[in-house]
Amino acid sequence: MGGAAGSGAELHWRALEGLYSSAPVNALFDSSLEVTGEGSARITFEVTVSAFHAAGAAHGTIYFKMLDDAAFYAANTLVTDRFLLTTSFNLHFTKPVREGKVVAEGRWVSGRRRVFVAESKLVDSEGEEIGRGTGTFMKSRIPLSSLPGYTA
User: Fold this and answer.
1) CATH of 3-146, one of 2.130.10.10, 3.10.129.10, 3.40.390.10, 3.20.20.150
2) Which of 3, 16, 87, 133 is the 20 to 30 Å CA partner of 116?
3) Domain ranges of the chain
């Protein structure tokens, strides 16, 4: 991307990555966020036995968290002044996952004013889709600039 607008977008994207890293909940996971462009984000994380349910595979909470985060950050690339809030999220489990690297890919679908829709998918280390979700996100009254970790 070139020009001042590109530079501003890049700064916003890097600040979103900083925001993700600074969230206390993310200290619980071996994960990282990469904003890959306007309307897209990728979270790479490692599933370990600490996230397993009693039957020896990752609990659905890890699916939800990573799908929600990837979709959320994809949508928040379009909003430079306010933090978005998840207002609904629908997810589908397609395959259990055990240990290993998983990637959550988020993609903005629609909305540019107050309500945003984004979708995400989870792919395991073999390249197979293991889950998919769609979320609705709404602008909050919380300025991004007021949040620790967000420095544009």
Assistant:
1) 3.10.129.10
2) 3
3) 3-146
